[in-house]
Amino acid sequence: MCGIAALQLRNPTLRGDLGLLMHGMLCEIVDRGPDSAGLALYGDDRLNPADRAAVTLLDVSMDADVFAQTLAVALPGAAVVVTRLGETTLVTALTGTAELEAAIESILQDAQVAGRGEHVTVLKGTGHPLDLAETYGLKQVTGWQGLSHTRMATESAVTASGAHPFTVADDLCLVHNGSFSNHASIRRQLRAEGIHFDSENDSEVAARYIARRLEQGDDLSTALTRLGEVFDGFYTLVVTTPTSMAVVRDPIACKPAIIAETDDWIAMASEYRALASLPGIENARIFEPSPGVVYTWELSPAAPARDTIPEAISL
Known about the structure:
Elements: E1 3-9, H1 18-27, E2 36-42, E3 53-58, H2 64-74, E4 81-85, E5 88-93, H3 97-107, E6 112-117, E7 120-126, H4 129-136, E8 145-151, E9 166-169, E10 172-180, H5 183-192, H6 202-215, H7 220-230, E11 233-241, E12 244-249, E13 258-261, E14 265-269, E15 285-287, E16 295-298
Antiparallel strand pairs: 1-8, 1-14, 2-7, 2-8, 3-5, 3-6, 4-5, 9-10, 10-11, 11-12, 12-16, 13-14, 13-15
Helix pairs in contact: 5-6, 6-7
């Protein structure tokens, strides 16, 4: 049993409160997954300022200051910033994601990359989800979209690398509640195609599969439809990009999910109580997603402006 809560903000005046809203949702899914937790946060200028690439690493033993100084030599003029947040080490720089990741791997050959992108910040670790939220400063986060997951491990060990979300391509994140029965055979097929895996988690297989389909030209809805044709098991998945959010359940809807939609926001959670404190919930369209149907929502404009996020407002 795991917990999922996701929020996409359509109304720019709410973006200053993304972290507060996500924290309130997270509080209501803690008991569904007390082992570990993770967040994918889009558009936060404190954690990942505009025009910078971000890479999330796990279990880095090198001193943060030494690591930053060494990276600065490898990336001159990139204004490297290294921030240690529990088991997560967040690295940002004025360069592309591929260049930043290559520089990191030249210094830490065994680096565990848990997140990457120019818009998303991925934070995850083991421990009580609310303790992790405090470590990450979740209440102070701003932005336009957030994804959270609390995990009760069933298919693999309780580790930071096994925590969700899985971010295996730039700004593409996946969380999963459930289990895939044929993940081992699909992993072998993907490895035969040259795909590298960072863990034995079945959810990473789904993330790698979706990234592969997108790479081959599918849109997000098509990729998730194809996943339903290939993967066996019971699941609720939420997948996000900088401008979209998608939800899909298995064909018999074994795992819970509830969606609420207003003109100001779209939210999904494993249980209604995680939605109950959102502003305007009393006027929301609330529904349970149908089995096997892919639901997608796109932000408009397609690229939210990073420099127009207002100060936090009181709710």
